[in-house]
Fold this protein.
Amino acid sequence: MIAESLFGKTLDQLDKLVRELDLPKYTSRQITEWLYKKQVSSIDEMSNISKQTRQKLQENFQIDHE
């Protein structure tokens, strides 16, 4: 099964995703900054997001810059 990509999601979509994963609300803004401003290629590079949160994201998502 291919994991869903975080890249391409809007802030509203990321807000919903963060709520569904029971993560802190501010996480969606952190993800947005990493994806679109810093253009990271992996969730592991999101260093200001807790290790537990990054693990949860990795279990469900990937970063697929198209």
Observations:
- Strands lie at 4-5, 61-62.
- The longest helix spans residues 27-37.
- Residues 23-59 form one domain.
- The chain has a mean pLDDT of 93.
